[in-house]
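hey
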């Protein structure tokens, strides 16, 4: 009852502005601290990286990271302006009116409004994406994306997002309309199963639309990796090399899918810079996430948070005051649902450092797992090469990294491994 009273009487217009200002101020402050940390250390290569990166490479990483952070401040400010335009500026309400005048169906309305939001979001983000790809990444030697590939990627993403989100929105609104007061339980479970299906199909249906995946045939890499997989008892659909060099020179490796569709994918750019022993160590780290139950824990946490999120949505949906205070006049089930997810990030941003901390602890644990099966020296040299090839920030501000970083700074990971080896 107290929650209902709060939702029906609170001045959410003021609360929303306060949260937006606090979020932007905090994140900008952390970015400025990070800029200061980089500038303070820019004149000398950090001790642990002497002999790993040249002065020219270090200067490149400094300039690259400074530009990215400064651009991040600008894009965050633009994001705030767009959010205010959507809410208090009435853009979201105008889109809702367009949909309401088109259909009386809540399900069709949710699909149409969702599609309009995706389209508008794509248009807004296009200049940011163009500048990031063809200016920042290009100027620092990372971009390999052609204009043709860039346009094709946008169109493919637009189609995929439209299909997937339309299906999900239609499902959620149908559940709200038809399954009574316990709808939020069914919605949370439905979204979880929907995401699981997409994740299962991703490596065979979606990923190949953007990149070519070819079996790993290089025996000098394949043999140690197969030995490691056998020793750890990990079964995958196969080892694949992805043509990441089509878009960027950044290197990486990842797992995708689950069950029969589990695949281990290496960027072709990665194979050009590291040794088989280093690859084995990096893969050992990735396998650690699976063997240590990190993936299962993430799935369980996702389901749990899904139930909490939909319960909160259920409570908020009962209060028109919340939505009117955020600039919505056209009150429908689907307009309230989509507005909630448009603004909720401004209220939950302080959960980010918590999730970042948990993720970093899992990274340390996976590093330790890899040490049991592979050479620690190879793990260190592989991480140092990755940081060099990706022009990673070698001197991040501690507060910035604790808020943003899902992986520990490279210097902390290397120090941790070295301590274990001693």
């Amino acid at each position: 009852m107290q929650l209902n009273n709060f939702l029906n009487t609170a001045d959410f217009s003021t609360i929303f502005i306060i949260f937006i200002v606090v979020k932007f101020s905090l994140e900008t402050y952390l970015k400025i601290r990070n800029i200061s940390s980089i500038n303070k250390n820019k004149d000398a290569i950090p001790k642990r990286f002497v002999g790993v990166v040249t002065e020219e490479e270090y200067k490149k990483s400094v300039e690259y990271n400074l530009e990215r952070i400064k651009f991040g401040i600008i894009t965050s400010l633009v994001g705030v302006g767009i959010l205010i335009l959507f809410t208090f500026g009435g853009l979201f309400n105008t889109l809702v009116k367009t949909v309401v005048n088109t259909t009386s169906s809540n399900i069709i309305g949710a699909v149409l409004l969702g599609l309009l939001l995706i389209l508008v979001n794509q248009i807004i983000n296009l200049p940011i994406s163009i500048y990031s790809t063809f200016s920042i990444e290009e100027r620092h030697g990372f971009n390999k994306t052609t204009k043709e590939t860039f346009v094709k990627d946008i169109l493919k993403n637009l189609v995929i997002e439209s299909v997937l989100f339309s299906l999900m929105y239609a499902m959620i609104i149908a559940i709200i309309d038809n399954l009574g007061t316990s709808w939020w339980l069914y919605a949370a479970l439905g979204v979880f199963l929907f995401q699981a299906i997409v994740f299962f199909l991703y490596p065979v249906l979606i990923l190949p639309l953007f990149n070519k995946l070819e079996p790993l045939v290089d025996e000098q890499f394949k043999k140690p990796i197969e030995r490691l997989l056998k020793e750890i008892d990990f079964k995958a659909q196969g080892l694949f090399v992805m043509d990441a060099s089509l878009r960027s020179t950044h290197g990486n490796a990842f797992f995708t899918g689950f069950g029969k569709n589990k695949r281990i994918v290496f960027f072709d750019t990665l194979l050009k810079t590291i040794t088989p022993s280093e690859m084995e160590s990096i893969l050992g780290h990735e396998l650690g996430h699976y063997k240590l139950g990190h993936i299962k824990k993430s799935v369980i946490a996702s389901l749990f948070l899904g139930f909490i999120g939909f319960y909160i949505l259920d409570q908020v949906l009962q209060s028109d005051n919340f939505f009117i205070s955020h600039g919505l006049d056209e009150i429908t089930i689907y307009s309230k649902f989509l507005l909630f997810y448009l603004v909720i990030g401004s209220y939950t941003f302080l959960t980010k450092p918590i999730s970042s901390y948990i993720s970093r602890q899992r990274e340390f644990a996976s590093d330790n797992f890899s040490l049991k099966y592979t050479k620690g020296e190879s793990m260190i040299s592989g991480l140092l090469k990755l940081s060099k090839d990706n022009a990673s920030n070698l001197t991040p501000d501690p507060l910035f990294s604790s808020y943003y970083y899902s992986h520990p700074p490279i210097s902390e990971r290397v120090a941790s491994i070295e301590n274990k080896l001693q």
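The first helix runs from residue 2 to 9. The chain has a mean pLDDT of 91.
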